[in-house]
Design brief:
The protein has one domain (57-193): Beta Barrel (Porin), CATH 2.40.160. Helix content is 19%, strand content 55%. It is built from three helices and eight strands. The protein has helices at residues 2-26, 35-39, 44-50; strands spanning 57-69, 72-84, 89-103, 108-125, 128-143, 147-162, 165-172, 186-193. The protein has an eight-stranded antiparallel beta barrel with strand order 1-2-3-4-5-6-7-8. It is elongated, with a radius of gyration of 22 Å. The two termini are 37 Å apart. 14% of the residues are buried.
Length: 194
């Protein structure tokens, strides 16, 4: 538990420090003018670069998954909306639905999980994205071991970003093998943004 808490604190520190740095760089109320540039009417290119402001915008994406394995089927649908706060920081939310079904001659179950997630991500360099995400899922399991329960997960992730695609891994710091709908605390992540 100490290692998990340490990872969570480190990611929070990175988010706070990068966000504070960006607020200083992108503060729209902070104006600096160079008197020599303001006197020189022909130097409009330098003035345009200096007056550049980042437009905040929404982007959309998510995950789709389908797998078939030795008598089992898994379907994942997880659309997400992201708000690009700055070139280096984004936040977002999403909904998740997971259907699992497994049958053999001794055991069988079907499981429906649905819920929502909120996340924040920082890009210290354009190709690297670090993220933290909370996901809560209500799970209804039928069959041999019928059960209904709520599962919480806090993911720390790292992804490589290339254009509108990102891929990497995430780690659930509060993973519980008995309750999680995922088979491991580590999960591969492939994201699309548009």
């Amino acid at each position: 538990m100490g290692f998990r808490l340490y990872l969570l604190i480190c990611f929070c520190f990175i988010f706070i420090s990068v966000n504070a740095q960006e607020e200083e760089e992108m503060n729209p109320h902070q104006t600096t003018t160079n008197t020599s540039e303001s006197r020189n009417e022909g130097n409009t290119g330098a003035q345009e670069r200096k007056n550049y402001t980042y437009e905040r915008s929404w982007s959309f994406g998510g995950n789709l998954g389908l797998s078939f394995w030795n008598g089992g089927t898994d379907i994942l649908i997880a659309p997400k909306a992201y708000y690009n706060v700055s070139p280096k920081f984004l936040t977002g939310f999403g909904v998740t639905y997971i259907y699992s079904d497994y049958k053999d001659e001794f055991f069988g179950y079907n499981q429906n999980s649905f819920g929502a997630s909120v996340m924040a991500a920082v890009r210290p360099v354009p190709m690297l994205q670090l993220s933290v995400e909370y996901e809560g899922l209500q799970t209804n399991r039928g069959g041999y071991a019928a059960d209904e329960y709520w599962n919480n997960a806090i993911y720390l992730g790292a992804s490589f970003v290339s254009g509108p695609v990102s891929f990497g891994f995430r780690y659930d710091v509060i993973y519980d093998a008995e309750r999680s709908v995922y088979g491991s605390a580590f999960n591969p992540v492939i994201g699309f943004y548009f």
